[in-house]
Write a structure and sequence with these properties.
The protein is of the alpha+beta class. Helices cover about 40% and strands about 20% of the residues. It has 2 domains: about 80 residues, Winged helix-like DNA-binding domain superfamily/Winged helix DNA-binding domain (Arc Repressor Mutant, subunit A), CATH 1.10.10.10; about 190 residues, Beta-Lactamase. Strands 8-7-6-11-10-9 form a 6-stranded antiparallel beta sheet, sandwiched between helices. Strand 6 and strand 7 form a beta hairpin. The radius of gyration is 21 Å and the shape is globular. Helix 2 packs across helix 3.
Length: about 290
């Protein structure tokens, strides 16, 4: 019989040091399980959390995390928590669909960013989370997740409300099976309120999330429609509650989202000169 030992994981917890399923999963499957843990953990994880989400022993998790870190697929933040690196995100965003979306949306995001001076997001839904595909930031990262690859629960962000509002009813029902965490007194914390808000978002084609994550900030978002009328992408801006009037941003955000929708429907898109200019500035070429 195999011996299972335990040892501290550096956070006062005990974890088994032998793999719970030796021989059942290949090395590749274990690495994929480790990376997949970040889809459940909200962006940054401790080794213990990765171990739990990936269903791996702490020893195996530590070894694999070290290898992926050395390869450049993970990074450590100032608190010793692991995040997916830009290398992984760049690989994911280089897929044909994601690249097409970002390339066609970027000129319009850059224009909205220039007109408002605000942080602009391009987001998609992944399970219970909204994930940022692209971010043009103009002010401090209020939540820590305002970055490419950052994640938030759907009901706490305006882009998340838009995406959930345009998901099917089964998805909404599944989302409401778990408690709705409120980060401030202004957030949505019950199913009835969320359902009413989602109906309002569908009707008005925009969402406002004021002071849901911070009393200093809010967000406005609108759906980006696919050629078939479905919605799996949203565009949003972050504003300061003491300075900006969100209703004055609604028309700009909706108009920009509509332009991106039209760009996605264009079978023969042309390289927008604003894209060239933006890329040149990003590269420090003028």
């Amino acid at each position: 019989m195999a011996t299972i030992q335990t040892q501290p994981d550096g956070q006062g917890l005990m974890a088994e040091t032998s793999d719970p399923d030796p021989g059942k999963r290949t090395a590749a499957a274990r690495v994929l399980a480790l990376l997949g843990a970040f889809a459940r953990g909200g962006g940054s994880l401790t080794l213990s959390e990765i171990s739990r989400y990936a269903d791996l022993s702490l020893t195996t998790t530590h070894r694999l995390a070290k290898e992926v870190l050395e390869w450049g697929g993970l990074e450590l933040d100032d608190h010793g928590r692991y995040r997916l690196s830009r290398k992984i995100l760049d690989l994911a965003s280089s897929s044909t669909q994601a690249l097409r979306l970002r390339e066609r949306a970027l000129p319009h995001l850059a224009n909205l960013h220039r007109l408002t001076g605000l942080t602009v997001h391009l987001s998609v839904r992944d399970g219970r989370d909204v994930v940022y595909l692209d971010v043009l930031r103009s002010h401090p990262n209020v939540t820590g997740e305002s970055r490419i690859g950052g994640r938030l629960r759907l009901h706490v962000a305006a882009t998340g409300l838009v995406l959930l509002a345009h998901a099917d009813e089964a998805c909404v029902d599944e989302y409401l099976q778990e408690p709705l965490r409120r980060y401030t007194s202004e957030g949505i914390g019950d199913a009835a309120t969320l359902r009413a808000r989602l109906e309002e978002v569908r009707r008005n084609r925009f969402a406002i999330a004021s002071r849901f994550l911070s009393m200093r900030a809010g967000s406005v978002a609108a759906p980006i429609f696919n050629p078939d009328g479905t919605v799996d992408t949203a565009l949003g801006v972050v504003y300061y509650t003491e300075r900006d009037d969100p209703m004055k941003l609604v028309d700009l955000v909706r108009a920009t989202a509509n332009r991106v929708s039209h760009a996605l429907a264009d079978d023969k898109p042309r390289l927008d000169p604003r894209m060239i200019e933006f890329r040149r500035r990003q590269a420090g070429m003028g």
